[in-house]
Amino acid sequence: MSNIHVNTTVNGDEIGFLCDPRETLLDCLRDKLSLTGAKEGCGTGDCGACSVKLSGRLVCSCLVLGAEAEGQEIETIEGMSRDENLHPLQEKFIEYAALQCGICTPGILVATKALLEKNPDPTETEVRYWLAGNLCRCTGYDKIIRAILDTAADMREAS
Amino acid sequence: MALDDQSKPYFKFVGTRPKRPDGIDKVTGRAKFGADSYAAGMLHGAIVRSPHAHARIKSIDTSEAEALKGVKAVVTRADFSKDIKFTSGKDSEHWNVLENVMADEKVLYDGHALAAIAATSALIARDAVKLVKVEYEILSHVTDVDEAMAIGAPVIRKGASDKSVPSGLHENVVSYYESGHGDVETGFTEADLIIEESFKTEATHQGYIEPHACLASLGSDGKGELWCTTQGHFSFQKVCAALLGLETSQLRVTASEIGGGFGGKTTVFIEPVALALSRKTNRPVKIVMSRSEVFRATGPTASTSMDIKIGMKKDGTITAGQGTFRLQGGAFPGAPGGMTAMCAFAPYALKNVHQIGYSVMSNRPKQAAYRAPGSPMAAFAVESVIDALCKKLDLDPIEVRLKNASRKGTKASYGPTFEEIGLVECLETAKSHSHYKAPLKKGQGRGISCGFWFNFGGETAVSLALSEDGTVQISVGTPDIGGSRASIALMAAEELGIPYDHIRCTVADTATLGYNEISHGSRVTYATGLATIKAARDAINKLCKRAAEKWGIPEEAVKWEDGHAVPSGPNAGDFEPLSLKNISEKMGKTGGPIVGHFEANPEGAGVSFATHIVDAEVDPETGKTQILRYTVIQDAGKAIHPSYVEGQFQGGAAQGIGWALNEEYIYGSDGRLQNAGFLDYRIPLASDLPMIDTVIVEVPNPGHPYGVRGVGETSICPPLAAIANAVSQAAGVRLTELPMSPPSILAALKAE
Asked: Is the CB of B482 less than 8 angstroms away from the CB of A80?
């Protein structure tokens, strides 16, 4: 099967890659572009570890084909802090010990950033349901939810 | 291990909550997990797996697969060591591992590996898997533990039983355990009420989000490199070398960051296969499991069938406890029948107690450790019966547990005598906790349960090297599965008297340190922590020696105080204190590098107990249970980094909630796993859970310099029972089988 040439923008940079028509966006990010921050936990859109933003929409990159990225803008965990300063969510996750093994963390951070852009003042229930597509097996979510609510409060105060 | 100096008056660093050293790597996506490694010229491996629960392999035809463009090699059992032979009983350890890694004459469960392919891309490798033609002779199978023990059940493997098994039992019973003290029959005659009940629990999976993954490189000279996600790279080195017929030291294993393990990454699956494919192709080979492979072929916990009989007096005194525990461990020996039985009554000081454990084989994947293997199931059965006794006798469940609680000096149900333990402190904390006194609404119930785990020490080697700028690098051999690098650095800071930030703790590869036991048994903060403290003290002795030489006084006349060498008293002389940096910056000229070491087996792990309180509400129309409030109270001995201790408490509780309410392996009558994905095997979501409150109890473990007890496993022991007890109160029916899923609760309600 011949490969497809895809032109796309990843974290603000214009990037092209060749992919097999069957390869997912997640495969392409990881194997073609060396962006391994997005993880494959299930490959079926159940765990959210591969969460990225595709032209403004939060998606599981394992459910998008690489070829579908043509002309789109992709945001991954690697683009979350563009300089030496971490995003407030990243800071707070470390401070709150909101990660243990850290495999779900990139997906949860990408998903949460998308939530706060939509809703800067979510309730605990809204955060819990927004993250229902991001599995974490280590933490029981407690410290994750607290870190998010506290970050949201800080960001509201700062804006 | 004698530890004379435990009574440290106060801690400067231990007990604080600094940022973890790998924090930035983990929140930016930079941290490298198992699947995040690539090599030049790398091939991709994929595995051919059995669709049958039990079948004889008549033939494997790989010709079509090999003819596919891009396929570079196929391996089968013939590509592994011929020196590993089946022998009966416990001596077959390596044979059992190899048989699970790659089937020989028979496939023993749905998902059992029987061949593997290396190709230039993962897609080609997966395509080639479909071209492998296997001819099977299908055999009858069994997946249920009671059926596997019954007369006429298909024998999984003749001669697999060890010497502990009494004659007359089915050949699928591979190990037998029995212990106790007193006389339970006399005990039951003293009881005012006896309850006898049977319980079953389904297998659950550890459910780590990171599938197994590795990158292997092995030459025909027997020298190899392996990168993999593992709880114990030294163990992987040893086992992979044996399975491939290599010399252990010629294989260097590096542990990646690990995306969850919970016991499930303590054993090899794909690693020896990637090495075999690499040897055959002379190229690096990467294998990453799919989620369905993880469910079908890696370690779920054992499923169980249990009978419990407990007698109680009207005042709450337990007069006797008896338990029989049958554990189904898949197609290999090793189900924790003995440990389950040992844990069952451990929280209670019983005059008369008797327990039996069976380890049973069936046509399922080999069970693997899952957080306190066996203990959660035992607690589910025993603590449910205690709860039922309390209800019938109208007694407070915490008072009854306090009345019977194990304490220092109690002869444990499994034999030894307890040293300092914190169960009474946990129960007292629960009794006075606001949660226990909060009012409940109609349709809601509150459950409590105790839990117990042994904890473990094991082989440990740590090296602590000083740098000339006064900073310190620690090499440990235990993969960091939940923030342990922070705890290790905190303990080193405490001993050395230098800031936490001046220390870097690294998980070293197998070429760097002596053998380290796997990160399991809640051992890392205990054993690697103890080793780090001892290594720091070794370095301090060397620092003091350098100061003594500089000052021209005897070594004994120098002591270490708050990060400095100082004269031990007025008679030693009057010298300006020398900081760690003062000494290390000159170490090149005063005798060379300064490195502290520890290599030994810490043996004072110290058992731990917990008490959980949970409120649940059951919807009588749907049978769905909602957890409303959850409080974990557990003895940590001494919490080194309290945030990560709380994290272990919360994580164990959450996994227990999943186990109690949703999670189960569902097998069809064809012996195939029907729910090998996260959609159908539903682990708790953020929207399922409330906040999980924690209370850290600290009753110091006499076997650790700072009093540490492991905390990772005990936290999953009480939830199954605590939730069952809450559901029983909320719904008015007692469920004796897990999971308590909506259909099973509805069925129980209808049967009332």
From this structure: no
